[in-house]
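Now for one record.
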Amino acid sequence: MSELKALTDAIRDSFPCRSALLGAGKYGLTQLRNLGRLPATGAVVVTGPLPIVSGSGSPCRALALVERS
């Protein structure tokens, strides 16, 4: 077994929620700041992750669109 395969299996087994999300074609956003400044409802979050092939993560630009009051 290659070291990469062993590492991938260890990560999958250690983080089942992450594996379930990624396996379903979904992605999770972490380390977002200032979310408390958004209204409880009505905001739209737009993200632009980099299309990294065979990667397990990517930096992204996240924007929150909020109607002006």
